[in-house]
Specification:
Blueprint lengths: L1 H9 L6 E3 L2 H7 L3 E4 L14 H13 L8 E4 L27 H26 L11 H9 L15 H21 L6 H11 L1 H12 L6 H9 L11
Helix pairs in contact: 4-5, 4-6, 5-6, 6-7, 6-9, 7-8
Length: 239
């Protein structure tokens, strides 16, 4: 979208975009952009809060009149933590406390996958499809593959994929498996399920740990993904 903004501006059309990944926007320098501190997929903030979303839109559209391009500004007001749509789960999934050693952590992830399997099967039956599987391997193999990046010697790349692409797709498969299974449960909003995945599962804990330990990888594509996309800004642990 940053590149498209430059193309449209060259044709005489004023543009403004909303950005969720600051590093991308700051590097490409679109003509006008509003950076927001929200989760990916929620450029206007928490669902179900139209008054807040109108405030975001008003700030965004006000940038159209700016002629001192490039203009990049931050929307600093935090989104609400709950909405009328944040219905409680009727049958929330819960797991034992998270283990601390690597071997037990992988065992715990595989145990979580086993517990979620009936719910994921139900989700597939209800929806008729699943977004899991882009990595080309089953979900347990994806978990083992990702855990292998915590070892001194990384695992062999997945078939027909580069290291960076295999890592990215395996990570997306793992996250989607949990969230698709959770969505099959009665009630619960996307925010509640996001909190559950990132703060209450060993699967989420693994992705956050990988984001912390792989930031200096020599693979530039993997480094970019780990730094900017693997874990949402709002879920990253700050030290």
């Amino acid at each position: 979208m940053c590149a498209l903004g430059h193309i449209l501006e060259a044709a005489g059309l004023a543009t403004v975009l909303i950005g969720l990944i600051p590093q991308h926007v700051e590097r490409m320098r679109p003509p006008r952009a509003l950076l927001v501190p929200f989760e990916l997929g929620r450029p206007m903030g928490t669902p179900g809060d139209p008054a807040f979303q109108h405030r975001v839109l008003n700030v965004l559209l006000a940038l159209v009149a700016r002629t001192d391009a490039p203009v990049i500004e931050w929307f600093t007001e935090p989104a609400a933590t709950g909405t009328v749509n944040d219905a409680p789960w009727a049958c929330p999934v819960s797991f034992p406390p998270l283990p601390t050693d690597d071997g037990a952590a992988l065992t715990a992830i595989l145990a979580e996958i086993d517990l979620l399997e009936p719910w994921h099967d139900r989700a597939m039956l209800t929806r008729g499809s699943t977004a899991v599987g882009a990595s080309g391997v089953d979900i347990r193999s994806s978990a083992r593959y990702l855990a292998g990046f915590l070892e001194a010697s990384w695992p062999e790349p997945l078939p027909a994929l580069s290291t960076a692409d295999g890592f990215k797709l395996a990570a997306e498969d793992l996250k989607l498996y949990y969230l698709e299974a959770a969505a099959a449960q009665p009630g619960g909003s996307s925010r509640v399920m996001g909190d559950w995945f990132w703060d209450g599962t060993q699967g989420g804990a693994l992705l956050k740990r990988l984001a912390g330990e792989l930031v200096h990888t020599p693979d530039p594509l993997l480094d970019t993904y780990v730094r900017h996309t693997l874990v949402p800004e709002t879920r990253q642990t700050r030290h």
